[in-house]
Design brief:
The protein is of the alpha/beta class and 170 residues long. It contains 5 helices and 9 strands. The protein starts with a strand and ends with a helix.
Length: 170
């Protein structure tokens, strides 16, 4: 039985936007987090974690230093674990719907994050999230999990995917 829908697709196709739209249309207690760009003028300078209960923390930034890097961004694993992992743990305990946006290269540096993703998917709760498109051993294992339905989001199928997710959440 599908208990998790994970959206994948090219950057900028609208995965986070779709999740936020779905959340605005369902009457379910949701917990977890999404990732948002940090912009300096017209340039992307990093990413922050925003929990569904209103906490924020910098995940990655061009102005930070860290042994964990993705391209020009230094990744703050402590911030990820204190904010996103804690939000997932709360969601597993208290929510009907767990939101994980995203399961990506930056987040996967953290073993605690990977463990929280597995706990969420193995829980009896519904999980709605995003997952990286490119191959990665952990992400590929999650995509193959029997409870997971991975959906490739495109501009052409966006409306159909919204309808599919809303029906699943009824």
């Amino acid at each position: 039985m599908t208990t998790a829908y994970l959206l994948t697709g090219s950057p900028g196709v609208g995965k986070t936007t779709l999740i936020r739209e779905v959340l605005s249309k369902v009457n379910k207690k949701a917990g977890g987090f999404y990732t948002q760009e940090i912009r300096g003028g017209s340039r992307r300078e990093g990413f922050k974690i925003v929990t569904l209960d209103g906490k924020e923390a910098v995940l990655a930034h061009t102005g930070m230093t860290s042994p964990y890097r993705v391209g020009k961004y230094a990744v703050d694993i402590g911030s990820l674990e204190d904010t996103a992992v804690a939000a997932l743990d709360r969601a597993i305990a208290e929510s009907e719907l767990i939101v994980i946006d995203e399961i990506g290269k930056m987040e996967l540096f953290s073993p605690l994050f990977r463990d929280a993703v597995v706990r969420a998917i193995n829980s009896s709760k519904k999980v709605l999230g995003t997952i990286m498109l490119k191959p990665h051993p952990f992400a590929d294992d999650i995509k193959r999990h029997p409870a997971v339905n991975t959906v490739l989001l495109t501009r052409n199928n966006r409306d159909a995917v919204v309808t599919l997710i809303l029906e699943w959440l009824k």
